[in-house]
Specification:
Its cofactor is Fe(2+). Its EC number is 1.14.16.1. Pathway: Amino-acid degradation; L-phenylalanine degradation; acetoacetate and fumarate from L-phenylalanine: step 1/6. GO terms for molecular function: iron ion binding; phenylalanine 4-monooxygenase activity. This protein has one domain: Aromatic amino acid hydroxylase (Phenylalanine Hydroxylase). Helices cover 42% and strands 14% of the residues. Strands 6-5-8-7-9 form a 5-stranded mixed sheet. The structure holds phenylalanine and fe (iii) ion. Phenylalanine binds next to helix 6.
């Protein structure tokens, strides 16, 4: 899409902020003027709370990117302001959405360097936990790393891989979803000065930011592509296992090959429970398993 041209508006969607136009790609204009003082306050509180605990915990690339993007605690950022910075850095754009998108639509956005961001922010009583991705998770958690050239390319490749997997079958899609979960959402990276967070699901949660790095409960295991693609995960609690990459280059290199034979091979292999440790794992920490519930893996 030519970015100088306004996207084609196809219909309107009713929200609690009135009727918003929906464009052909399923995206909406960010209704920035409709944010209340309470909305900006939720952003400010969450932003400040995370930035207090993230130095020394979040990856250098994440913190650096968030600063250069010009996100601040003062106000919910305007997508259009962030998009100018992103366009120059890596060509990515953020687009507003009402909520989760159908898989293929989501993949197509990523493949075209568009990252869908929920336009609405959680309520004050949802500060600590919300089930669906809201603006804070998407913007604070995901968008900074779109400034990093390596990570930006990884996400494009992921989107293209998703379009392909969609044509292969549900098993391939599930294996790819696990890769997203254990990298983009819940990934850890090894820096010379120690383990750091880069996953958006962690970095946007105070509890999991501390748990993922400091708790004795979870496993921390070196990243291995096929191992990750076989591993089930939790959506209702902190992760039982985190996978650690050495660099974003490692991620790109590991995911560069055609996955078609991998999908085929994995069809023959059983899924691995979220909390299991295998003989072949490169274990940084074997979790104590404290507080784990017995079932509930996705
Ligand atoms: N190389 C993968 C494929 O052929 C695509 C991909 C890249 C998937 C990066 C995930 C992440 O399907
Ligand atoms: Fe997310």
């Amino acid at each position: 899409m030519n970015s100088n041209q306004a996207p084609r508006r196809v219909e309107n969607v009713q929200t609690d902020r009135g009727s918003l136009p929906v464009y052909a790609t399923g995206t909406v204009e960010q209704p920035w003027d409709s944010y209340s003082e309470s909305d900006h306050d939720v952003w400010r509180q969450l932003y400040q709370r995370q930035r207090e605990i993230l130095p020394g915990r979040a990856s250098d690339a994440f913190l650096r990117a968030q600063d250069t993007m010009g996100m601040t605690p003062d106000r919910i950022p305007r997508f259009s302001d962030l998009n100018r910075v992103l366009a120059d850095a890596t060509g990515w754009q953020i687009v507003g959405v009402e909520g989760l998108l159908p898989e293929l639509v989501f993949f197509d956005h990523l493949a075209n360097r568009r990252f869908p961001v929920s336009w609405w922010i959680r309520r004050p009583d949802q500060i600590d936990y919300i089930e669906e991705p809201d603006l804070f998770h998407d913007l604070f958690g995901h968008v900074p790393l779109l400034m990093d050239p390596m990570f930006a390319d990884y996400l494009v490749a992921y989107g293209k891989g998703g379009v392909k997997a969609h044509g292969i079958g549900p098993e391939a899609l599930m294996q790819l979803a696990r890769l997203y979960w254990y990298t983009v959402e819940f990934g850890l990276i090894r820096q010379p000065d120690g383990l750091r967070i880069y996953g958006a699901g962690i970095v946007s949660s105070k509890g999991e930011s501390i748990h993922s790095l400091e708790s004795a409960a979870p496993n921390r295991i070196g990243f291995d592509l096929e191992r990750v693609m076989r591993t089930r995960y939790r959506i209702d609690s902190y992760q039982q296992t985190y996978f650690v990459i050495d660099s974003y280059e490692e991620l790109i290199e590991a995911t560069l090959p055609d996955f078609t034979p991998i999908y085929e091979r994995l069809l023959e292999q059983e899924a691995i429970p979220a909390g299991s440790v295998l003989e072949s794992d490169n274990v940084f920490q074997r979790g104590s398993g404290e507080g784990w519930s017995v079932d509930g893996d996705v």
